[in-house]
User: Fold this.
Amino acid sequence: MSDDDPKARVALTEQEPNMGQKQNTSPPLSAPAVIADAELVRSCRAGDMNAWRSLYDRYAPLIHRFSAALGVPAEEREDAAQDILIAVYRSLRHFRGEAQLSTWIYRIAARHAIRLGRRRRVRETMRVMMLKERPQPEIDPSERSTQLATLDRLLAKLAPKKRTVLVLFEVEGLSAKEISDVVGCPENTVWSRLHHARAEMVKAARRMV
Amino acid sequence: MNWLENPQSEAERLVRDGLDQAARRTGDEITHRRGWAKVADALLEPEPRVSGRLVLASVSAAVAVLAVAGVLVYPHLGSKTPAPLALPSLPVPAVAPSEPSGQPTDQLAVEESERAPGNVIRTRKGERARVALGGGAVAELSENSAVTWDTQHRPSIEQGTASLSVPHQPPGWRFSVTAGPYVVTVVGTKFNVKVGGRTVGVEVSEGIVEVWRGSRSTRLVAGDAWHGPLYPDDSATQPPSGSSLAGPAASATPSVARTAAPSERPQAAAVASSAPLVSNKPLASTSRGLREAQAALQAGDVNRAADILSHAAQGSGLAAENAAYELARITRYNLGRPRQAVALWDRYRTRFPSGLLRAEADLSIVDTLSQLGEVGAALAEAKAFLSRHPNSERRAEVQRLLERLRAAEASSEIR
Assistant:
């Protein structure tokens, strides 16, 4: 069947050589399409741009969601996601594969969000000091939902460590063991922080309604 | 069972609903596509090397800057009037003369000191002016136009047409310009603002723009045009089926229509539509078919995902466009059929010549052909990309690819 034949070109049953592989070694259609993280890391380290694209597609939405819940404002999120993925790229050679790739990325993202928060606070303090007035809180265009806006206000009241644990558990769905790997503390501490964070959230929400 | 799955109070329900929504806050597809363009660019760049001497020089420079800033800022700390240093200051390019337009022009130069609240820069008939607005943004004022600055030092288009070019703003910064009752906010883009008669119009040629009025907003992407009434009670200018700004309390009902970006103007009529655009996800990612395809893909059922996308691509509108593009993408990356993927992207281009993902499709074809070793075809596509998308964020990436392809072609000729 010629590749120039338009019908042949779009027929999904047609077999083609897979790029970068020898002819007739393309994966069967029933092969799992989702490449395992370990395989992805190997290909990324080998400089395969397609693997990098797959890694980006897999983790950019996660980073966006996690950064948002950790208080990175909408206008900084796009840049934050890029910074985090570029940091992943630059340090992937140091990734030993002892933890899951997602755990490692969560760790980088959490550190970056905390760093951005610190910079933001310094900037606001400087503005308040110099302008002698409190800056107007900017409306976040992407946060049109009242529930989300309320949640962000409640999360902002938590200490960063408690907030990170609560977000990883309740928003990201990680287990206590995985969270302990991300934040680098014992599992008991994770449970304790989660317990306190939940209690503080509900208490603050009661004051709000 | 999730925490607070059966809420016992309004407060608990509030927390649970917020957490559920936060779990779905994954960003829109435009943001991710643009993000990949920048990440890919960084991956192709050689990694910067920082020498110890450079670090030392940077630290010394930072100390010197802080010392100078301290000397300059200290006298203003007790003052009621905000000092210029106290404002968010970004590099401001000098005012540059506009390109000669062939008609009588009286180019106006605007000093930074003239951008004071209440000052008005006005062009008369036959005049054009290029005005540095701060934050690296530049406005080109057409004849009979006026720009002023409000008390927050924010530029405001009072009358006429201004073509704005805003460089990508640093994290945490957002450029705003007002026009009548609307605030247009951007992080880096090119767009036109028109204030004339009884309407305000915004046309986006690159990037993403948000138009705000009070707590309501609409998001415009490249190729979108929007207009709304200048005066709140002006019903005469309201289009019969215009879209409203998203949010709870706007009185005006401006409209949004798709037009073509400058590089795609010949096909503008083919894609013009008056469909409302009030969603955060302009690529219609909320479409059920696309969600099902995504779920099938995540479950590893690529064939089912391909079937769903193939079906969705038969329709019309942005959902069909996105499905057509995605079908080609999974054909290449998940099914491992690059030639077929090229054919599908080609089909996408035929169906959606001015589509939102046109540049992505063109680039995917270049990339796939070069991976297949079809150097001649890839070269032709790369050259076509550069001439078709002169302002693309992926231009640098394609330029590098073009150079590699040329080198490959030359080496094959030598052999």
